[in-house]
Prior knowledge:
By secondary structure, chain A is of the alpha/beta class. Chain A has two domains: 53-76 and 96-270, 3-Layer(aba) Sandwich (Rossmann fold), CATH 3.40.50.300; 274-341, CBS-domain, CATH 3.10.580.10. Helices cover 40% and strands 23% of the residues of chain A. In chain A, the strands form three sheets. Chain A has a six-stranded mixed β-sheet with strand order 6-7-8-3-9-10, with helices on both faces. In chain A, a hairpin with a 2-residue loop joins strand 9 and strand 10. The two termini of chain A are 32 Å apart.
Amino acid sequence: MSEPVIKCENVYKIFGANAQKMLQDSNGNVDAKTFQENGCIVGVNNASFEVSKGEMLVVMGLSGSGKSTLLRCISRLTDATGGKIFIEGQDLLQLNNKDLIDLRRNKMGMVFQSFALLPHKTVVENIAFPLQIKGIKTEDSISKAMDMVKLVGLDGRENYFPRELSGGQQQRVGIARSLAVEPDIWFLDEPFSALDPLIRKEMQDEFLRLQEKLQKTIMFITHDFDEALKLADKIAIMKDGIIEQLDTPANIVLNPATEYVRKFTEEVPREKVLLIEDVMELSKDNLGDLKVSKDEIIENVAEKILTQEKIVAVVDNNNEIIGSINPTKIINTVFGGRKNNN
Amino acid sequence: MELLKKYPKTFQWLFLLIVFFALCFAIDVPETYKFIRGQAEFVKDPNQSSYVFLGKEVRYYAFDVFWRLPPLLGWLPIWINDSLFFLMNDWMPIEIWNEDTQEFKSRPIVLQISRNLTAFMTFLIELIREILLGGLETIVAFTSWDWIDKNPWAELPGLPWTIVAAGAALLSYKLSGKGLALFAGLTMVYISVFGQWKPSMQTLSFILVAAPLSFIFGLGLGIAAFKSKRVEKALYPILLVMQTMPQYAVLVPALVLFGVGDHAAVIITMVVAIPPMILLTLLGLRAVPPEVIEAGRMSGCNNFQLMFKVLIPTARRDILIGVNQVIMVCFSMAVISAFIGAKGLGFNLLLALNQLNIGLALEAGLCISLIAILLDKMSLAWANKQTDYFGNLTFYQRNKNLLFFGVIFVIGIVLAYIGNYLFKDTFNYLFEIPHNKGISTADFWNKGVDWIFDTFFIYIKAFNTWLIQDVLQPMRALYLRMPAIATIVLVVGAGYLIGGLRSALVVCALTLFIAFSPWWDRALVTAYMATFGVIVSCIIGFTVGTLCFQNKHSANFMLGVCDIFQTFPSFVYLIPVMMLFGITDTSVLIAVIVYATIPATRYTIEGLRSVPAGLHDAATMSGVNKFQRLTKIEFPLAFPHMMLGINQTIVFALFMVIIGAFIGTEDLGQYILKALSDKKGAGIGLTLGICVAFIALIFDNLIRAYVQKRKKHLGID
């Protein structure tokens, strides 16, 4: 296994005057309440996780849960109070200013909730901005930026100013800008939260399309659980600065680790989240004729399975049977009591 | 009792007023009281008392302490003076190598710095002036007089006015388009044809040095204040005082430090123009959204790139307002600094005003205003300019403006050359139209003024007499009748009721400074004139603003008019009023009213505009009529913003009152003017300036405290 692209070990971020000292005194056992009484606010509390190459980690939490702070620690927009962060094996907190700038210029891209476009620059100038900062010639940076304009489907609007664009279009510019330097790591801080529901869905699909093409390592922040389920390879759910659970979407739905996580999963339509693989049984007896792929979402094949009387075979990518699924299992999963699954 | 509980604030105010009037009636005017108090002039008078402070003798007329406080700060101007002289003449002498005498000379360090600064400024001004008008000072600076004598061809000939005019139009075209180009061309032609070319170019060269330098320093200090809390804290009180200090007052100490001439004027202009630039830079940088800064950081900006490519462009709006302010102040100072020997239009304007030649003054004033508007618009257009990356331009297209200018340059020179033959016996009108040899409409205006005076003399005089005798004199007498103690109780009480203990203490300190200075009476006269001006301005401003707000187009039109009027240097306002009312208090007050109405109108419109659209709809759906909507919804909500307008109105009014001393009023301004021609005037001038600034700051403090409270109450931020 290759080294993870992002690796966090016991990361803390505590705001306040004597945060450093209090953290040392607490011996890694941070209690938000006692800290607050001493004038410190805990942003991130003991976060450890890894993101490997090409993987998308979605950090989900309500506002004030510390998810944005965590992201800013990893991009070092703020300095973490304690712990270690490695980007491709480099210790982020030990980097000097020059190396940090180098890292950002070549390896990182970030998209912001409020788009954060430069109001005095046109679409194409905004996208070319990180390139020009790197010192690339104006002509080259503009032609590269024009490629990005096409990638996000804004051709014909390259000379518009941000104020002349709709929210969705502005965020496309934000996405294009973050991708202009072809970063390996892509940070997205609630990129679609400021958009209308319809536009949001469109942008999510667009985002998935881009990711399929680009295969970046991604940290994606959202407060929308449905969005997290739709996009994520892995989801981290945060509350009060603590990562409550970090797992695949299916596992989070099927096995919520805490009461807090369970509350989120209660209303989730399982058939839209779970794969056949997640609910299949390993026995291969009494199989019928129908075969379904293990990677299908239940919703897509439920009708087919439910019309069968026999047990349905589950196959992997090589069309080899690896398990089976009983139609009643589908009914149980979709309509059955939630508690049975625990 | 129940009433008292229901309206506690009203009763508190009532109580304050009762105490105030009780004090007024209880304390009688002492018999020895004379309005003009000798200690301001430092004349020895056997009736005076005196005390010694820090080795300085301060003389004053003794009064009942309740009537007027003793001038405990009388030593301050003397002390400032002595310190300045000590700094200039004795402090830290250093050895300087003198090229001419080939020996070391000892000179105080401050004097040396001021000399070097002066030389630098003079060089810059001369350089631009000689490009525009011709001359040889700049060449001498690099070579020597001997070299010039041997090579007489080296003298710069100056640009023919046709080239400058066409160049200005071309630049405007490149920056903005046809409209501005036309304006620029017409302005330049007007200046030239009316024989104002030389003074205009002198003023322009002064502005072209002062404005960019003020911009750079203001921006730099603004950035420093943004980056460091400590710098900001150190700068803030200075900025506050400087913003409310009348520009006149800065002249006097600068006279001591830098002497007389254009260079001193540039330095003073910078002192006055930099504070608003700093404040607006700071304001703009603060308002940049944090995510934009983060986006810049994530794009890999280093600190320098972050500041100059992300922060400053994003804060452009406020910074541009700062540039506008700088230009405004520069032109205003271009006139005022004529008092300390700056050449150009300002000098002509003052001269014409002094001779009561209204026509000439009008022409010079129009020139200043036109150039001011032109530069303002050009700087705005420059900041908003956009680059085109996609046009596949040929060499000709890319450089067409430059080529065009080259052609114009050649044509201009050829024309000037032809002119040389054409106007052999007179002046070469195609090269430069000499001062007062162009067309002049001065006679027409003067005759017009005479005609107005002859025709309407009775009415104007009647109005004048009525205003002075029935309104101004009684008001003035009332102000002077207030015992100092009563005034202080009133002001501090108001401070306490509006802003609490903190506000009361600040206001108390500011008032005490004025009360302990030897110029309390003068300050009262200043306050009375400003009060009168502010009240009338506010009535006019609110009415006009409200009326214009009823229609979108008229509102925009009015804001445009305010913009233009604001660009006029303050002195220009004195011209028309002197035309009509001659040298009286009425003239000054009308100038004050016209000048101070601008911010009152502007803030009224902007305040009314800031009322959220949702509330308009809600009000309409509640079935209000237009008048109800205005009184019940728009006024209450716009009021805090309008109060800030009053704040500006007060500052504007005070400035104008002080400038009015030029026409001859009996307030603090008169003493500042006097200090200008006094060898020991620096201390007096500065202290007087601080007094005026403090009057403004007292009101500023009260109004800001009120606005903050009110905004919190209404939940607007």
